[in-house]
Recover the amino acids of this structure.
């Protein structure tokens, strides 16, 4: 889903826009910015607002583990055993995910290998068939076309079908 166009920093406002300029920020968002980030949308410089918001988005962790503050909250609220359980669960999920990714990669590689062997067999049989057909008197142009299709695979077949279609339209 595409993001809406970004308004210039100078148009941010908590107050209703004057003379059709600016953008109204919902009061709930203004309260959240003020409470959580210490940003006063009405009085702060737009450059400062963007800098604070940018630093908040850049400081997010990509760690799979729950933050230390949240784990401490579990302990403080009387669930000290829950901290170890959360970490064990996250480790088990990571291990399972890595195992599944390894299985998927192995299966994908096997599938690609089988496709390569199949293409080799088709190419060898196609060329051998063309040699035999040429020896038996089939026109060389047909043998060459079939050999190219056997070696070229789907790309060669696509090109050949477009050429045939092009020449059929010229003859109509």
């Amino acid at each position: 889903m595409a993001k809406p166009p970004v308004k210039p920093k100078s148009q941010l406002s908590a107050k209703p826009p004057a003379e059709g300029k600016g953008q109204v920020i919902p009061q709930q968002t203004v309260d959240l910015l003020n409470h959580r980030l210490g940003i006063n949308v009405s009085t702060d410089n737009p450059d400062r607002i963007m800098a604070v918001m940018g630093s908040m988005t850049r400081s997010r962790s990509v760690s799979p583990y729950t933050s230390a503050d949240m784990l401490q909250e579990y302990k403080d609220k009387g669930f000290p055993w829950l901290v170890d359980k959360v970490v064990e669960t996250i480790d088990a999920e990571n291990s399972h995910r890595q195992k599944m990714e390894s299985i998927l990669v192995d299966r994908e590689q096997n599938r690609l290998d089988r496709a390569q062997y199949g293409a080799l067999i088709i190419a060898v049989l196609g060329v051998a068939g063309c040699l035999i057909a040429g020896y038996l008197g089939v026109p060389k142009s047909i043998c060459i076309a079939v050999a190219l299709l056997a070696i070229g695979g789907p790309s060669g077949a696509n090109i050949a079908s477009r050429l045939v279609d092009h020449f059929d339209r010229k003859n109509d």
Notes: The chain has a mean pLDDT of 79. The helical segments are 27-37, 46-58, 68-76, 80-135, 140-171. Residues 80-135 form the longest helix (56 residues). The longest strand covers residues 12-13.
